[in-house]
Amino acid sequence: MGLFSAHEVTPAEIMERFGQHLVEGEEVLVAFRTVRDTAFLTNYRFVLVDVQGVTGSKVDVQSVPYRSIVRFSVESAGTLDLDADLKIWVSSRSAPIEVKVSRKADAARVQQVLAGRILGIG
């Protein structure tokens, strides 16, 4: 997701910018944003918004339902690392979807949301 690590943003910011992409009853649980791209977890799915091109007029919105996620990895930032890594493997792809997030982001919260939704307990 871009060249820069993503920082955490509020669910309200996501609702304002991407509310038209959500279904009735869908809630944003955790969200991250770079200068151009955005990734967020809802109560139904993982969404990655990739702004493309120089002008940013082309936008790719990828939606991954939790049932399609076969595994994930949340790697916290080390002492010399600037960011943490979130990797999500989807059943239809061999390579993971990767998101670099700010070291200040709540990696434990991301892991809790993903584990709970994938295991059907959260």
UniProtKB/TrEMBL annotation:
Residues 3-115 form the Bacterial Pleckstrin homology domain. CDD domains: PH-like_bacteria. It comes from the Bacteria. InterPro entries: PHb, PHb_sf. PANTHER family: BHLH DOMAIN-CONTAINING PROTEIN, HYPOTHETICAL CYTOSOLIC PROTEIN. This is Bacterial Pleckstrin homology domain-containing protein. It comes from Pacificimonas flava.
